[in-house]
Specification:
Oligomer: single chain
Largest sheet: 6 strands, parallel
Strand order of the largest sheet: 2-1-3-4-5-6
Helix content: 25-40%
Structural class: alpha/beta
Strand content: 15-25%
Number of helices: 12
Length: 434
C-alpha cells in the first residue's frame, strides 16, 4: 500500500482541510503515516497570512523534499494560490493546488510518480457555489473540526484572505451533517465548527444556528463548539442555545482587533468599540459562565501611543478570558499596505509583548473564577509534568493527576488551585461518582 503524510501550516481551517485530505487518501488505499516518516506522497497545506508565514511554507516544502526526495510532493492552499510563481521555482515540487481545486485534487492522483515539472491546478476565479467535502476528517485529538464555510466578503484592509480563499460560500447542509455523524461514530466527542467567516453560513435558507440545532440531534456528539466568529454575525438564537446548556459550548471567540475607533476605521472593521462592547456585554449577560476570547492586531499603520494605551485600557475593562495577539504584517495587495504611518518593528514587538503579558493575566483570572467549582472536562492528553489536561465547554484548560487514563473521557473535576507553571491552567481533582 502506498504511504501518504500531511502537514498543515496556519489556521484551524487549514488543519481541517488536511485532515479531510487524509480521509480521502485513506479511502483510496493509502496508509497515512506521521509527518517526517518515509512516505510516497507528501501534502502540505500552506498559509499566506503574513510574509513570515509564506517563508515558513517555502522552508517546509524544502524540508519535505530533503526528508522524502522520492516522494510525490503536493503544495496546496493559500500560498499555492498567491505564491504560484515562487513555488514553481522550487525543484522537486510535483503538484501545485490553488484554492479552486482543493476539494478535488485527490481525484487527479492514483499512484503518483515524480515529475520533471509540476502539475498546476490553479485558477484566479474561485467558485462561490455551495460545496461538499468528499471525505471525513482524520484527527489525532479528541476534538474534530467540521468545516462549514469558506471565503470572506468583508475585505478588512489588512487581510489577504478574500484574495487567497475567495468570496463567501457555504457547505451543503446535508453534507456537513453526514460528516458530523461519521465523526461521532469514529469516537470524537466534540465538534468544532470552522470556516473563515462562519457567522455568514447560508444554505437553503439555513443559518449557523440551524447547523447547531441539527448537530444537537447527532448521536454521540457531546459538545458543539463555535470557533472564531465575527461579532456582527452572531445570531441571538446562538446565544439563547448556549444559555440553555445543551450541547452548544458556552464559548465565543470574537475578534476585536483594536480598542481604538480610529484604528478600527482604518482596518475597515464593521463596528465601533462601543458597538463591540455592547454586544459582548449582552452575550456575557445572556450566557452565564461564558468563556470569551478575542484577537488583537498590534502595530497597525497609524496606531499612536495613545491609541495603543486606549486598546490596553479597554481590553482590561472587558470580561475576556484571553487575547490572541498578532503583530501587524503588511501584505501586498491589501489596502492597509498603502496607508501611511507604518511602525518600526521594535515598537510593534514591544507592544505585542505588553499585550501578551496582559493576556496571561487574564487567563489566570479566568481560572481563578472557577476555584471551588465543579466543572466538566473533556480530557485530551498528558502534559510534560504528567497531568492529564483538557477543556471545559467554556474553554478553561484543566489539569489533574490521575493513574487512570483519561484521554477522550469527559469527567467532573473539583477545581482547587491555579497552576504556577502554565498561564490559565486550573488544577483540580477528579470527582468520583457516588
Amino acid at each position: 500500500m502506498p504511504r501518504a503524510s500531511f502537514t498543515s501550516l496556519g489556521c484551524r481551517l487549514n488543519h481541517t482541510e488536511a485532515a479531510n485530505w487524509a480521509g480521502q487518501f485513506a479511502g483510496k488505499g493509502y496508509t497515512i503515516v506521521p509527518w517526517g516518516d518515509p512516505t510516497d506522497l507528501v501534502v502540505i497545506n500552506t498559509c499566506s497570512v503574513t510574509h513570515r508565514a509564506e517563508a515558513h511554507c517555502r522552508n517546509t516544502v524544502r524540508r519535505a523534499l530533503r526528508q522524502s526526495p522520492e516522494a510525490f510532493v503536493v503544495v496546496a492552499g493559500c500560498y499555492a494560490q498567491s505564491g504560484l510563481d515562487a513555488l514553481r521555482e522550487i525543484p522537486g515540487v510535483d503538484m501545485i493546488v490553488g484554492t479552486e481545486f482543493k476539494e478535488s485534487f485527490p481525484d487527479y492522483l492514483d499512484r503518483p510518480r515524480k515529475l520533471p515539472e509540476p502539475v498546476v491546478l490553479h485558477s484566479a476565479r474561485i467558485s462561490r457555489h455551495e460545496f461538499e467535502v468528499p471525505s471525513t476528517g482524520r484527527y489525532d485529538s479528541t476534538r474534530a473540526n467540521l468545516k462549514v464555510q469558506d471565503g470572506c466578503d468583508f475585505f478588512c484592509s489588512f487581510c489577504i484572505i478574500p484574495y487567497t480563499r475567495g468570496r463567501e460560500r457555504s457547505r451543503r447542509f446535508d453534507d456537513l451533517v453526514r460528516e458530523a455523524g461519521e465523526l461521532a461514530e469514529a469516537g470524537y466527542r466534540e465538534l468544532v465548527l470552522t470556516g473563515v467567516n462562519i457567522g455568514r453560513y447560508r444554505s437553503g435558507g439555513r443559518t449557523l444556528a440551524d447547523v447547531a440545532d441539527r448537530l444537537e440531534e447527532v448521536p454521540g456528539v457531546r459538545r458543539i463548539r463555535i470557533t472564531s466568529i465575527e461579532p456582527t454575525t452572531v445570531e441571538d438564537r446562538l446565544l439563547e442555545r448556549m444559555a440553555e446548556r445543551g450541547r452548544l459550548c458556552r464559548y465565543l471567540h470574537l475578534p476585536v482587533q483594536s480598542g481604538d475607533d480610529g484604528v478600527l476605521d482604518g482596518m475597515g472593521r464593521r463596528y465601533t468599540f462601543r458597538d463591540y462592547r455592547e454586544f459582548a456585554d449582552r452575550a456575557v449577560e445572556t450566557v452565564p459562565g461564558l468563556g470569551l476570547g478575542t484577537d488583537v492586531i498590534v502595530g497597525f499603520p497609524g496606531e499612536t501611543d495613545d491609541a495603543f494605551r486606549r486598546t490596553c485600557d479597554r481590553l482590561e475593562a472587558m470580561p475576556f478570558a484571553y487575547y490572541h495577539v498578532f503583530s501587524y504584517s503588511s501584505r501586498a495587495g491589501t489596502r492597509a499596505a498603502g496607508l501611511p504611518g507604518h511602525l518600526p518593528p521594535g515598537i510593534v514587538a514591544e507592544r505585542s509583548r505588553t499585550l501578551r503579558e496582559l493576556s496571561d493575566g487574564r487567563r489566570d483570572a479566568f481560572a481563578r473564577r472557577h476555584l471551588g467549582q465543579r466543572v466538566e472536562v473533556l480530557f485530551e492528553q498528558q502534559d510534560r509534568s504528567g497531568r492529564w489536561t483538557g477543556l471545559t465547554d467554556s474553554y478553561l484548560r484543566v489539569g489533574v493527576v490521575s493513574a487512570e487514563p483519561l484521554e477522550n473521557c469527559i469527567r467532573e473535576v473539583q477545581v482547587t488551585r491555579v497552576a504556577s507553571d502554565v498561564p490559565g491552567l486550573a488544577v483540580g481533582t477528579l470527582v468520583r461518582p457516588d
